[in-house]
Structures are given as structure tokens and as C-alpha cells.
Amino acid sequence: MKRKYKILYIQPIGAFSGSLKSSEEYIKNLYTKFDFIFFTQNGFAKKILKKYGQVFESFGLCKYDNTENSHYKGLRWLLIFREVFYVIPTILNLLKIKFFIKDIDLIHLNEITGLPSAVLAKLIFRKPLIVHVRSLNYRNNKSLKSNLHLKILKKFANIILAIDQEVFKTVNIKNKTTLLRNILDLKRKNKKNKKINKELKIGYIGTYLKYKGIENLIEAVEELILKDYKIKLIFAGKFLDRSFLMKNLLSWFSIDNNINSNLFKKIFIKNMGFVKKIQNFYDQIDILCFPSSLNATGRQIFEAGIFSTPVIVCLKNKVNDGLVNNVNGLIYNNFFSIKQLQEKILVFYKKRKLIKIMGRKGKKIALKRNVKNHNIKRLYNIYLNLIH
Prior knowledge:
Helices cover 39% and strands 18% of the residues. It has 14 helices and 15 strands. Helix 8 (214-226) crosses helix 12 (338-350) and helix 11 (298-306) packs across helix 13.
């Protein structure tokens, strides 16, 4: 019997994240065809990945953050010391994988922030490398760090997978970068027909981080409630897990991205925490809000489309891959403007019929762009082409 090809799959984020969620949609459709060996940081990721293959964990994976939103500047440069410290455990664990697994056929990095770990893996295993890019990369021709990062990516990556057109533009390397959209693989029940209530239910799903704009959303809604608007916020997701030492260290330097958990104690907020069945979340909301400073639509936007839910998103440009302003959602451009966010919320509050109209259009767009079987076959063929 012919052996299954072995893929070393590097998941650099051990906590609950969109990259983990998006990767699982592909892995669960491919793990019967390939032998996945996972390498990740200690945390929630192991719980998900162990269903599909052997998992090797490290208390730290060496990373380098060159994303548009959180590339190193100011006090964030202090995090480089942590990444340098993580080089040794990363190498030791890769050697451990080599000892127990022997040979692998391919390396797949699930987020560009883990590029240093992937480069080390390629040097140790001498196999082709796929770099999956899920965030906008910081691109500045006058920046030494930006140019160096791009050169390393170009030198070591055999294929670069960008999740949408916006991400593609920031890592576009001729003959290497290709588009592979996220998918949603689930048995979908029809969304319940809900009566139009006086109370508008706004949802947010994802990690509870400051740069995701959650604090802005809470402030905007709280002000509207004081003006007698009936609004409820429903959150689903998790905080990033921190060790006691790391939590206090980040807090001391004021660089912890987790929001203050006390915000969720407000009476107009419902926190569902991590949800296994996302339909349970979407069945409870009227609209989804993604007020992030990332300047990217994220996985949540096409998820919302699948569940016929319109969106409010913060983006610098009103032309975006997967989101059309005034068609399947509303776009505002100033992350710091509470007023702009409130204006978009009030559009849906005052014109409830738009919720169904935009929701239907969003579903059409999502189904057209994020075709499950086509994208799974594309990744399958990418794997085989690099291995052979």
C-alpha cells in the first residue's frame, strides 16, 4: 500500500484564532489523504489539531510580526527579545520531530508571522515550504525591516497562499503568490425567520483584542442606549491565553492586546465565549460588526454572508474583496470615530428591511467566492505539485 505523504503543518498561534479556525476547514477534508504532523505553541490549538494527526507542542515558537497592524515599532520592539529566546525551543522541537517522524514531504506554515520557525524547519528538513498569509503584510519600500522580510519570504517560500485580493497585494511575488480563499464546511440549517424586534442585536465573533475595535463598539452602543435606542451586543470568542508572568509583563509595558474583561459586565452585553457551532451565534444576531483597525475583512465577513447576515466593517477603502458597500454591508473608514460607527448602526436600526435585503445579497457573494470543493481541490493539487 502506498504511504500517505507527510506534511509538517506549523500553526504558530497556540491560542484560539481565526487562522486556526480557517485551517481546520481545509485539514478536516484532507487529513485522510495526507499524514499531517502538527507543530504548534502550547494552548488551545492542540485540542483542535489532535483530531487530525500527531501534535508536537512547544512553549514558544519563534515568530516575527510584520503585519500592517502590529509590525514592530516603539515599545513593540521589546517583543523581539521573546522571539530570540524562542529560537532554541523551536530548533529543539523541530529536531525532536525529525527524530520521531524521520522524513516529511512538505512544510505548510499557517500564518506569515511564523516565518522564522518555517525557515528553520526548511533548513532542517530540506523540503518545499508553503506560506499561508492571512493578514495584510506591512509593505514599505523605504523600510529596511520590510524589505528584508520580503526578501526572506521570497528566498525560502516555494508557494505563498493569500486568502484574498487585499492580502495578495501585500505579498505579491511573481510566480510564487496565488489566491486561496477561506472556506466554511458545515451542514447549514436555514436561518430562523426572526420577527423584527424593537431591540437591534449586534454581534461580534473573534478574539477579544483591542485592535479589533471591541472597546469602540461597546462605547458606541452604550452612548446610543443612553439616547433610548434599544440595542443588545452579543459576543462570541476568547481572550488570548497568557501565562501569569507574560500577562503582568505586557500589562507593565502597556502592550497587552487583550481588552479589559470587566467591559463584558455591562447589562446590554451577552458574552457567549467560544462557540463550537457558529450557527448558534448567528441565529441570535441581526447584524455582524467588525470594527477592526486591521483594514481587512477577515473570515467573519464571508461567514456572515453564509448565514445571510449583513455586516458593518471598518475599512480604509470602500472597494474590497468580498464586501461591497451598501450591498452586503456598510463600510466606515475611521477606526477611532465612534460617530461614524454609530451612524452605520443607526442605518440598520431605522431601516430593518435592509437586514434581510443585504443578508440575501451577502449569501450570494459568499457562496460565489468561497466555493468549498473547488478550493479544497486546489490545495490538494498544490500539495501534490510541490511534493513531486
